[in-house]
Amino acid sequence: MSDEKKKRTRHDHPTTDEPAQAPQSAAETMEQEAAAQNEAVTLMEDTITGLQQELQNAQNQCKEYFEGWQRERADFMNYKKRVERDQAQLHQVITANIIKKFLVVLDDMERAIKNRPAAAEQQEWWNGVELIYRKLQSILEAEGIQPIAAAGDPFDPNLHEAISHEESSEVQSGHIIEVVQQGYRLGERVVRPALVRVAQ
What we know:
The longest helix is centred in the middle third of the chain and has 89 residues, at 26-114. Helix content is 59%, strand content 14%. The strands form two sheets. A three-stranded antiparallel sheet has the order 1-4-5. It has a three-stranded mixed sheet with strand order 2-6-3, with no helix packed on it. The radius of gyration is 52 Å and the shape is rod-shaped. By secondary structure, the chain is α+β, with helices and mostly antiparallel strands. The chain is built from three helices and six strands.
């Protein structure tokens, strides 16, 4: 046999020194598939856990923002109410200061009417005086000015200013005998206290 044929024959028949690969068993295949499935499940669970944590963080942040917005809204509403209250009080103060000047005129007109001359009601000019007096009263009432009731009432230092304390058999002690000058109020604010005589 020639050398070339010997070489071909040697290559055509594998040597017994190389081990043959055994076919993979079904059990090993199932184990590999199970391992792959477990790995996929674990990955999915990790992904779901991460998404749940992100959702929880987002919800917490949303709750924090909402509570902060509620606090800011409450603060703004309180600020708005405080500003409105301050403006109303300022309006009352300004109105009261202006009206005080008209009260002096009203006092003069009341004294003039109280001490009117005889037969004055029969004269046209006197009717004009009374008309002006009533108009002035209407203007003050339209601005919210109300007289402070005093005659016969208990003396109240918040509403009345005592010019004298006198013995009286007709008026109970601590009550007002007479109003010397009418007092006025604007809402709860005293524009001018009533000047009164008080029974001892």
